[in-house]
Amino acid sequence: MSRINTNVSSLTAQRVLGQNNSSLGTSLSRLSTGLRINRGKDDPAGLIASENLRAEKAGINAALKNSERADQVVNIAEGGLQEVSNLLTELQGLLTTSANSAGLADSEKEANQLQIDSILQTIDRVAGATSFQGTKLLNGNYDYQVTSVNAGVSDINVRGAKFDGASQAVEAIITQSAQQGAVLLSFGGTSLDLNGTNGSFTVEIAGSIGNRELQFASGNTVTQITAAINGISDVTGIEARASTNVVVLESTDFGSNEYVSVDVIDDGGQAAGGGGNIATYAGDFGDAASLTTEGLFDSTAAANGIRDDGQDIGGTINGLLAVGTGKTLSVSSDFLDVEFTASNTASQTLGGLSAFSITGGGADFQLASNIDIGGKTSIGIKDISARKLGTSDLGYLDDLAAGKAFNVVDGENLDTAQEIVAAAIEQVSSTRGRLGAFQKNTVGATIRSLGIALENTTAAESVIRDADFAEETASLTRNQILVQASTNVLSLANSQPQQVLSLLG
Question: pTM of the predicted model, to two decimals?
Answer without folding.
Answer: 0.75
